[in-house]
């Protein structure tokens, strides 16, 4: 029963994260799936679900027409490089140390962003340097290849720009659709995607869809300031969860 709850909650969070929060809360799905299935099995089961959700989001004109091509041009090539670097070590390197490193970076980001927002009262958008985007993109690709947790790093680049809700989600979704698609064949060859895992994924699709529809609604009704603060909160919570192991 506990496993069933963890899996369906994780599936709903995948959908909610994709459509409502551009991957921020979606990172929480990885530890839930890992608790239910174990590390290697969980990443194989999650990948098809992530791809299905990406396709659903991009099929909605609300998001598809809101993609920031400049951010995609900076982040996507570097993410693919990171994936190419991460895949060879997926079966060798224990991911706990890497998760904790991502958690530290995310927590530093969350604290710094909160200080800027609440104490410095700087409301103007900040465009990070392209070189920072390249470095974060490589890190996001590497983390995504190993454990589907790269969203924290791309959020670190996109959030300070204070993009409109739909642009944030649409841009994030396109980045992860392409990067997730690039992992399918390597995962299959490594035995991470199995027939049993695919059947389990199909059974979780209703929960993914429910979470995605809830995310679409939240994205439309939340004001931009609240949306930004929620993203920041989810990044901080994700960082703490990763550090706790």
What can you tell me about this protein's structure?
The structure is a single chain. By secondary structure, the protein is an all-alpha fold. It has one domain (2-244). The chain is built from twelve helices and no strands. Helix 1 runs antiparallel to helix 2 (29-37). The model has no long low-confidence stretch (mean pLDDT 83).
Note the main attributes of this structure.
245 residues, 12 helices
In short:
With 245 residues, the chain is mainly alpha-helical. It is 79% helix and 0% strand.
Layout of SSEs?
Blueprint lengths: L1 H19 L8 H9 L1 H21 L1 H4 L4 H18 L8 H26 L9 H18 L3 H8 L6 H17 L2 H6 L5 H27 L2 H21 L1
Helix pairs in contact: 1-2, 1-3, 1-11, 2-3, 3-9, 3-11, 5-7, 5-9, 6-12, 7-8
State the share of residues found in helices, binned by percent: over 70%
Number of separate strands: 0
Our count of domains comes out at 1
Structural class: mainly alpha
């Amino acid at each position: 029963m506990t496993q069933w709850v963890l899996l369906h909650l994780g599936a709903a969070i995948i959908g909610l994260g994709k459509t409502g929060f551009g991957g921020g809360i979606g990172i929480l799905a990885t530890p839930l799936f890992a608790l239910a299935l174990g590390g290697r099995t969980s990443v194989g089961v999650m990948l098809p679900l992530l791809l299905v959700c990406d396709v659903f989001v991009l099929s909605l004109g609300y998001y598809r027409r809101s993609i920031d091509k400049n951010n995609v041009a900076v982040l996507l090539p570097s993410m693919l490089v990171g994936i190419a670097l991460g895949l060879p070590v997926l079966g060798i390197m224990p991911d706990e140390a890497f998760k904790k490193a991502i958690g530290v970076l995310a927590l530093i980001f969350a604290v710094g962003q909160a200080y800027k927002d609440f104490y410095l009262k700087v409301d103007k958008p900040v465009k990070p340097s392209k070189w920072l985007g390249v470095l974060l993109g490589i890190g996001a690709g590497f983390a995504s290849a190993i454990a589907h947790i790269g969203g924290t790093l791309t959020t670190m680049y996109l959030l300070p720009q204070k993009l409109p809700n739909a642009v944030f989600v649409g841009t994030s979704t396109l980045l992860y659709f392409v990067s997730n698609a690039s992992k399918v064949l390597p995962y299959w060859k490594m035995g991470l995607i199995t027939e049993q895992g695919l059947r389990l994924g199909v059974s979780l699709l209703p929960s993914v869809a429910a979470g995605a529809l809830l995310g679409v609604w939240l994205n439309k009704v939340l004001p931009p300031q609240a949306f930004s603060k929620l993203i920041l909160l989810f990044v901080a919570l994700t960082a703490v969860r990763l550090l706790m192991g």
